[in-house]
From TrEMBL:
PROSITE patterns reported for this sequence: SQUALEN_PHYTOEN_SYN_1, SQUALEN_PHYTOEN_SYN_2
GO molecular function annotation: geranylgeranyl diphosphate synthase activity; squalene synthase [NAD(P)H] activity
Pfam families: SQS_PSY
A GO BP entry: carotenoid biosynthetic process
Gene3D superfamilies reported in the protein's UniProt record: Farnesyl Diphosphate Synthase (1.10.600.10)
Protein name per its UniProtKB record: Uncharacterized protein
Keywords associated with the record: Carotenoid biosynthesis, Transferase
Annotated organism of origin: Paenibacillus oryzae
Pathway info: Carotenoid biosynthesis
UniProt-listed InterPro entries: Isoprenoid_synthase_dom_sf, Squ/phyt_synthse, Squalene/phytoene_synthase_CS, Trans_IPPS_bact-type, Trans_IPPS_HH
Amino acid sequence: MNVQDNLAQCEAMIAKGSTSFYHAFRLLDSPRREAVFVIYAFCRLIDDAIDEEQPLFSIDELEQGFKDLEHADGHFIWDSLRWLFRHFKLSKEPFFRQMEGQRRDLVVTHYETMEQLESYCYLVAGTVGEMLLPVLHDAPGEAVTKSGIYLGKAMQIVNIIRDVGEDRERGRRYLPLELMKRHGYTEEQFDRGEVNEAFRHLVDELTELSRSWFRIGLENIGSYPVQSAIAVELAAGYYSAILNKVKDNRYEVFTKRSIVGSLEKGVIYASVKRKYGKPRQNGTETAVS
């Protein structure tokens, strides 16, 4: 396949795997747009290597292919990654830390402290912010990098709240025991999937933590190119809205997945449009080579 075909495959992965991210970042100009798609696709493969019963790649295969990227072949992701590193000055380190974080799911299934949880959020999501910044920002300094990391961590807390039930079915509990004890919620209640006042207070604390990290994550949004700022604000808005849906669903995260519908996304889009002006529709125009 040629470069265009490879990048189209990456776009198909994000369109299928995350409608929120896709609808936010598809508004970017090329080649930033395609670069985000490549990063998402590789992170998706890393995540699937741990979570899926029959993944396309094992985590070891992905790590080895990434280490020897110039010679890796047999899948469109390798040519796509080579294209990415040719066009943008990215460090490989966040990608390796991302793999380290996903490997943690193989050995740590129940979290004890908030400190452990924040470390995990950085490895699996803060690193994504580090990957994206050289694509989305023209000169990401220390403050911008800090914000990008916090934005990723905020989104991971949303994932943890939304996916409590799914993760429990996989034998995982990301809700730290320290937090559960603080609110009087027991491990036995968690195992039963009990939603009570203690659980709601627990989720409320995590929700406020996530919202505080979203605020830090958007502190330097004014320094981004306009199209990047729009995409980041849309992604943050779509994702933080999941927290509202959890509350609307009476905190039932054990058996019900909180999804932000097209109507709610339309309201968020309209708010961002008022702030920045209507985002350009890129259509099929590309600047990749």
